[in-house]
Amino acid sequence: MIEVRDLHMHFGGFRAVDGASLSIKEGSITGLIGPNGAGKTSLFNCIAGVLTPTSGQVLFDGEDVTGLKPHQLFHKGILRTFQIAHEFSTMTVRENLMMVPANQCGETLWNAWFKRGQIAVEEAALREKADEVLEFLTISHIADEKAGNISGGQKKLVELGRTMMVDAKVVFLDEVGAGVNRTLLYTIADAIKRLNTERGYTFCMIEHDMEFIKMLCDPVIVMAAGQVMATGSAEDIMQNEQVIEAYLGTGIKNKEATEGLTKDAIPTSTTAEGTQ
């Protein structure tokens, strides 16, 4: 579905992404992990149109979409969420969802004056769809809450809900579990699984919490220094000496010098990654 070919993203002399190549299969939940500074967020931003890569290609179902802007990719069904949720804080949760679909009738002054009946019908349909999304995500009880007043985990669920208001095909999740309590984390994980199995969503997710990755992802792609280091199942990745060395700066052969280093030495949760 998504194929990245020899992608580079340079900021002056700094190579945030340095020849990364990977593929995301349709119907998969692909994990993207790596130490801070590995280039994960920059890669996401290049795929999702936030950044224009220095060189390389991004293909979507065989079509070259390199350099397309986020709104253009949105219409193709490629959506991206952010580590810090972006909500309209003074609007209700339901209204935040109803804002998502593009080209709504009420967006033009002419229609606002002369097509009020059509606008009312459209808004009723959007409200019904938003309520269905809220029920699917088990957050109907906050439908009328101001989005700025809900918890961080609930905001992450609302971001997932936004992807359900349009015909999303592939969704890029940037640390959807960051700062979320374990109860809500399991709710988010369940929603992702159900969207994948019941609605055919393809996901690719950056995440530092390896337990969360193990719950959801196959395959897992590891990045380091702007390049793809390894690809495999979560269990295989957690036993990969190169991956452990990338995270901790030491390999299994030197484990005597690093107390407690085991196959689970990759941190299950680390400090959230900033912009790369």
From TrEMBL:
Q: Matching SUPFAM superfamilies, A to Z?
A: P-loop containing nucleoside triphosphate hydrolases
- Is Protein transport set as a keyword in this record? no
Which keywords label this protein?
ATP-binding, Hydrolase, Nucleotide-binding, Transport
PROSITE patterns, from UniProt? Answer: ABC_TRANSPORTER_1, ABC_TRANSPORTER_2
Which residue intervals define the domain ABC transporter in the entry?
2-250
Which Pfam families does UniProt cross-reference here?
Answer: ABC_tran, BCA_ABC_TP_C
Give the CC-aspect GO terms.
plasma membrane
Q: What molecular functions are annotated in GO for this chain?
A: ATP binding; ATP hydrolysis activity
Principal EC category: hydrolase
Q: Please, which domain of life does this record's source organism belong to? A: Bacteria
Q: Has keyword Transport?
A: yes
Q: Which residues form a coiled coil?
A: none
Family matches, as Gene3D superfamilies: P-loop containing nucleotide triphosphate hydrolases
* Enzyme Commission identifier(s): 3.6.3.-
What InterPro entries does this protein map onto? AAA+_ATPase, ABC_AA/LPS_Transport, ABC_transporter-like_ATP-bd, ABC_transporter-like_CS, BCA_ABC_TP_C, P-loop_NTPase
Q: Which PANTHER family match?
A: CONSERVED COMPONENT OF ABC TRANSPORTER FOR NATURAL AMINO ACIDS, CONSERVED COMPONENT OF ABC TRANSPORTER FOR NATURAL AMINO ACIDS-RELATED
What name does UniProt use for this protein?
Answer: Lipopolysaccharide export system ATP-binding protein LptB
**Which organism does this record belong to?**
Pacificibacter marinus
Encoding gene (name): lptB_3
